[in-house]
Amino acid sequence: xxxxxxxxxxxxxxxxxxxxxxxxxxxxxxxxxxxxxxxxxxxxxxxxxxxxxxxxxxxxxxxxxxxxxxxxxxxxxxxxxxxxxxxxxxxxxxxxxxxxxxxxxxxxxxxxxxxxxxxxxxxxxxxxxxxxxxxxxxxxxxxxxxxxxxxxxxxxxxxxxxxxxxxxxxxxxxxxxxxxxxxxxxxxxxxxxxxxxxxxxxxxxxxxxxxxxxxxxxxxxxxxxxxxxxxxxxxxxxxxxxxxxxxxxxxxxxxxxxxxxxxxxxxxxxxxxxxxxxxxxxxxxxxxxxxxxxxxxxxxxxxxxxxxxxxxxxxxxxxxxxxxxxxxxxxxxxxxxxxxxxxxxxxxxxxxx
Amino acid sequence: xxxxxxxxxxxxxxxxxxxxxxxxxxxxxxxxxxxxxxxxxxxxxxxxxxxxxxxxxxxxxxxxxxxxxxxxxxxxxxxxxxxxxxxxxxxxxxxxxxxxxxxxxxxxxxxxxxxxxxxxxxxxxxxxxxxxxxxxxxxxxxxxxxxxxxxxxxxxxxxxxxxxxxxxxxxxxxxxxxxxxxxxxxxxxxxxxxxxxxxxxxxxxxxxxxxxxxxxxxxxxxxxxxxxxxxxxxxxxxxxxxxxxxxxxxxxxxxxxxxxxxxxxxxxxxxxxxxxxxxxxxxxxxxxxxxxxxxxxxxxxxxxxxxxxxxxxxxxxxxxxxxxxxxxxxxxxxxxxxxxxxxxxxxxxxxxx
Lengths: 353, 353
What we know:
The structure is a homodimer.
Chain A: E1 23-29, E2 34-40, E3 56-62, H1 67-70, H2 72-89, E4 97-104, H3 110-123, E5 129-133, H4 135-143, E6 150-155, E7 159-164, E8 170-174, H5 186-202, H6 210-218, H7 224-231, H8 236-240, H9 243-251, H10 255-279, E9 290-295, H11 307-318, E10 322-325, H12 331-352
Parallel strand pairs in A: 1-4, 4-5, 6-9, 9-10
Antiparallel strand pairs in A: 1-2, 2-3, 6-7, 7-8
């Protein structure tokens, strides 16, 4: 352990009792919040994986850690503080940490990974295994027991599809934000619903129950007022929050709402198919099996109009081996599982050597 | 003349020589700039209209006068200053003004018109005829010799279609901005081109020469860098400025660029058709003739891929009586012509009475 900025966040360690066995840290850092999980570094079960329920010792939460949003200094401070908090809650200190996986949004280039890994090296003892990834990786790992293989489709306010192969290749599709056409996202769905209201009002589109349902929700008396509402606040999440109304309108039989959801299914499926194709996740004959982990509000299976299920149907027409997974644990646990897997693999390799 | 705020802008009037005959003011106030034209209030030619070249005495220009953008006080100050400047340049004073037409963007409700008219009444002598309209009206009048009848399609950074009947009814379509689906606008065309580059890059779309042409223009080395470029500055005009590259790519045979332009033609034609239908501009049999005034960079006829011409083709399939007009004068002259027409009509009515 060398120089680091926030020495005081680790003050608790001097009062920590000895005796806690090895632990793993998994961190999922997004634009809204950052979650850190401290998990016991238990030995694998008979199939070589950790068995459920996972041995989570503690969970800590903090704000944004996307360096593009808050700057690198603030992002690092948040990450360091939330890791210290998770260890404190688990009554452990850095000396018993075996591996750390940071999965942080905004980490897009090997240079980002290298920079953050260097910084982590100054915080943790030299034996600690360090892994730095994009937050999509944690989402994937949350559905694959920490195995980095397959495709993850995230669709909340935004959307991105990311894929990984066991030999370390990766590919992405979408994730470029609303101006650059992420139409399958929650923002995309809701913006199309608002557009449909305007079009129905000025005579360019079919009449739709979206008009009544959305204007009532927003307490507006006319579609003309939508313009003021829309541009008064540029937040994408505020618009994406209207997705449940689009889904309920479609469920009640509205043709326009149904078309918007069907189009969004095609968009989301296109992203998955592009990633699967580029990585050859489906094997040479196109029929090989691969996991598709689905994460985010748009893909939740709590409605009769199930966008995630339709996406899988659409993908399976081309790639019948698609294995849909809706994770039961949060992405930070995925990051911890990933760190555990990598640690066990390295550990096994060292034993062989 | 009663109280008004900026008495000093009119100080020049005390030094103005007598003898200037009646004048008309026409003002086109937009979000980018405000132009005021001072025109001689000449008698009509044999057909009852002013003959070209129009008797423009002076032209003055100022900044934004959209009250939604800069607030009402600043908007009024800009409007008053630019009117005073036009009169000063024409060596005229308010006492010889016969009529004023303000055509200002952001004037959307009768209450806006009434408020601005009340304010103008405090500035000008009581005999002056005052007309307050939306800026689309000036654009229409610039193509119809000041007659308020027909449809105007504006497509620059944004787009809107506005129609007016001789008996005072009006209707609009589009004009709701990019979030609410103005896909035929310059912004819409360029955003779709950027989207096409991202889709080609991540495997969701066809390869396109837009990638090379636009990345070279923006001095970016990879489509990945487009994301940073796009979100670093939220100005719609900056994105819309890429339209000429989409047009030249289409002219060179690029399939993706051609599809974007064809889609934009359909969108723009839909706006026109919706307005024509709602107002019945085409007569009862749908074949009646009506003017379609086309304004804005997207509709300029300086290229072999002529978006405006294609829009007219598309509209004429449904409404064969469409009479396309590309105005030769600027909208502020349209506003002056409108004021002149209204003044002459009222003058004739008064003579009859």
